[in-house]
Protein: FAD-binding protein
Amino acid sequence: MDFGKAVEELRLLLGDDKVFTDEEILDKYSRDMGGFTRRPRLVVRASCVEDVSKLLRYCSSHKIPLTVWGAGTSLTGAVVTDSVILDLSAMTRILKVDTVNYYAHVEAGVVLEQLNNTLKEYGFFFPPDPASSFLCTVGGAIAEGAGGLRCVKYGTVKDWVLAVKVVLASGDVVVFGEPLAKNRAGYNLCQLLVGSEGTLGVIVEAWLKIAPLPEFDIRRIYAVFDDWSDAGRAIIQIRTNRIVPRMLEFFDRVGLEAANKMHGTSLPVGEAMLLIDVEEITGKELPRVLQILEKNHARVVRVAETEEEAEQLLQIRATMYLAIRSVTKEVMVEDVCVPIDRIVDYLDKVQELSRKYGLTISMNGHAGDGNIHPLIFYDPDNPEEVKRAEQAVRDLVRFAIEVGGTITGEHGVGIQKMRELVEQLEAHNGLETLKLMQRIKKAFDPDNILNPGKYIDVSWTQSR
Ligand SMILES: Cc1cc2nc3c(=O)[nH]c(=O)nc-3n(C[C@H](O)[C@H](O)[C@H](O)COP(=O)(O)OP(=O)(O)OC[C@H]3O[C@@H](n4cnc5c(N)ncnc54)[C@H](O)[C@@H]3O)c2cc1C
Structure:
């Protein structure tokens, strides 16, 4: 492919100020936050649907591969490419907040935190809240089918998308879905775009369901345990007591020590910590949860007294991945998710693998969903250690599939998990489902220009 010619032609088509080849800019788009790297040849920063449509028409007719960039917080290599990057982060308009039909109509580049700040003024919120909400975009969160901290109560992004405006590979613009409480007209193509990782079309706008901000009190509890299993058992008992927390997060000593260092805080440290949001609807929820924590040997239990204290606890958890990255050479970020009743077995398994392979594995994540993320520490310059880390990941994935879990609860497949996706589909769903997915991809993108070589693409590689 002659990229020099493409740059010239795209500048004529879109304007000089939208097409970039400067080394410094290419650098910025060469790495996702999981450490996967590819160097793009050119970057287009679109500011409207028409820009996107023109670019896709051009790429289609010249068969040039293209990858959409939201904020680049992907942890699986889904967002890196050695071809064209289409950056939508300038498309940040909130077009409508509808407080009767309960939806927000937004452009794809809106950052989730920005959306929630605006919705707050109307007394509403968008519940799915990836820990990267302060960075990640609506388009990226939909394309990744993202989860988050509140998803234990509210479900993931898939449960909150009513409709999407999509630019197809051909450049045609379509809308899938309707901003309606009910709509049964046709196949649910809107949901097909959720979790499509930029392989089926470019999401340029979305109609997202929103919810009124709750009026009752939410109490944030911080609990410290000396044993991972005790924390795991507390999670199960909260559920069997029919309490649905608004947030139920787990983290360990390694993560908390890194976070305390990054924030200059001194939160009490144990082997395992739970951060729990309890909604005080009847007044009985908080005492019941406290009782469960005590019964499971929580050594310290604190209920945040002020909004500032509650916010600080949340920030410590939300930025833990970044804190850990600042104290390690490299980590492999795992995202397996197990049935919630197997959470204690899962925690035991991770500790067993840590001992077996002689590696530090730190755990933090959405324990209430069965989706705690193991972070496997390794030295990239030590090939033997890299091998051990990879083997630990293989064992973890196999364990998750065996117990009826999934290889990815929320981070998606990208280039990291292609082999594992096939394994899960083979074990749980039948390989015919993969063939069907590949036929759907072909129908949307006959020339395979949208984020090729990833996800369900058969010609895959797994190099970082
Ligand atoms: C600190 C940190 C915490 C995180 N916490 C969570 C968490 O709690 N839950 C969770 O689910 N994930 C989490 N993630 C992963 C990541 O943030 C989410 O997957 C996020 O939704 C990606 O959004 P983004 O805008 O950065 O997308 P990008 O990384 O830019 O892109 C991700 C994928 O979506 C595609 N894409 C982006 N925009 C569009 C579009 N408009 N149309 C079509 N395709 C598009 C890209 O091509 C790529 O395949 C975390 C990441 C970090 C770094």
In short: Residues 32-33, 67-75, 78-79, 88, 108, 130-132, 136-137, 139-141, 143-144, 146-148, 197-198, 202-203, 321-322, 410-411, 451 surround flavin-adenine dinucleotide (CB under 6 Å). Residues 10 and 16 are 8 Å apart (CA to CA). Residues 3-87 form a domain with the Uridine Diphospho-n-acetylenolpyruvylglucosamine Reductase; domain 2 fold (CATH 3.30.43.10).
